[in-house]
Amino acid sequence: NNSDRAIWAEGEKTFDNVSISFNGGDAILGDGDMTFNGVILSENNGYGIYGDGDMYFTNVSINDNSSFGMNSAGYKNFETVSVSDNGTYGIRGDGNMNFEDVTILNNGGSGIDGDGTIIYNNVQIENNNTFGINSEGGKTFENVSILGNGAYGLRGDGNMFFNIVTINENEAYGIDGDGDAFFTNVFIDSNNSFGMNSSGSKTFNNVSI
Predict the structure, then answer these.
(1) Residue 93: what are its φ and ψ, rounded to 5°?
(2) Between vectors from CA 160 to CA 149 and to CA 81, what angle results, nearest 5°?
């Protein structure tokens, strides 16, 4: 409940069982590697996180901030994380990322926007106002839903691997981006333009489009 930012600090930071909420500015501003465990960043009048560095998140909620949930370049690892209802992007920043047991829902811009190699395992990316994912680079999807986003479900070039994936009811293409792709147990339906617009080798096994 501070009138401006909650934390403005450069350098390595560790947060364990911390709640940063209802501040008049950003929750966290400053570059540096960061580790978050059992953390809530919610309802701040600005960014949830703004600053570059490698970051590790476990049991974290980044919700209802008025600007980006996160704007940060560098490696990111997310385990059991919610990024929802932020005013613009859910997550913005270039760098390799790993997502496991993550929901990215109802953000005012894209759910994820940033280039790099990204691995998604048990992830929901739904009802974001523009792209579900806008990202150049290799991508692997395992047990993922990309549903009801306001533009493309998935946009970005790079080789892609899909297993047990649903890409439905997005307001533009389901998938738009060039590169080799391998699809197993994939359902692409009811998108508001092409199901897929993509050049490159494609392998389909048990797929409905």
Answers:
(1) 155, 140
(2) 55
Best CA proximity match to 86, nearest among 99, 102, 70: 70
Supply the DSSP string of 26-76, one letter for each residue. Answer: -SEE--S-EEEEEEEEES-SS-SEE--S-EEEEEEEEES-SS-SEE--S-E
Both tokens of residue 171?
């307001």
Find tokens 């600090």 and name the residue.
9
Largest Cα separation within the chain, whole Å, is: 55
pTM for the full model?
Answer: 0.95
Per-residue pLDDT tens for 76-87? Answer: 999 999 999 999
Kindly report each contact of residues 193-199 with a partner whose C-beta sits within 8 Å and lies 24 or more positions away, as own/partner: 195/167, 197/173
* Encoded tokens for 5: 């930012």
Cα 78 vs. chain centroid, distance in angstroms? 10
Contact by Cβ (8 Å): 64, 42 = yes
